[in-house]
């Protein structure tokens, strides 16, 4: 089954994390379907559906997904460099932010510096 490897809501820096996770999940249950892959609050989010899944497969899926989320927290979502840090960006449009009114991004110091210079390093891969 051909699987989606990336999503328009994921920066390319997390591509290897997503690829590794999907390969590991496919080994356990190749019939699962991807519902959504995205970034939220500075970490990877992954949602899937599996029509037939045993208890041990469910537990294995959760462990693999949790491991990918942990990796995303310390990997720059723009370039893939480790370690990265969470940066809080003040946003004038509070509608799409956390309760404090900030965007949270997991990025390295280098990409943060480039971003402050106005370079478009945050383009989404399509």
Biggest sheet architecture: 2 strands, antiparallel
Give the radius of gyration: 16 Å
Average pLDDT reading: 78
- Please give the share of residues in helix: 25-40%
Total domain units: 1
Which sequence of strands runs across the widest sheet? 1-2
Number of helices: 3
Uncertain runs are 122-126
| Backbone shape | elongated
Distance between the termini: 21 Å
Q: Pairing-aware structural class of the strands and helices? A: alpha+beta
> Roughly what fraction of the amino acids lie in strands?
15-25%
SSE string, helix = H, strand = E?
HEEHEEH
Task: Write up what this structure looks like.
Helices cover 33% and strands 21% of the residues. It starts with 14 loop residues before the first helix and ends in a 10-residue tail after the last helix. The protein has helices spanning 15-28, 55-73, 109-116; strands at 33-40, 43-49, 85-90, 102-107. A two-stranded antiparallel sheet has the order 1-2. Strands 3-4 form a two-stranded antiparallel ribbon. With 126 residues, the chain is an alpha+beta fold. It has one domain. Helix 1 (15-28) runs antiparallel to helix 2 (55-73). Strand 1 and strand 2 form a beta hairpin. The model is unreliable at 122-126 (pLDDT under 50).
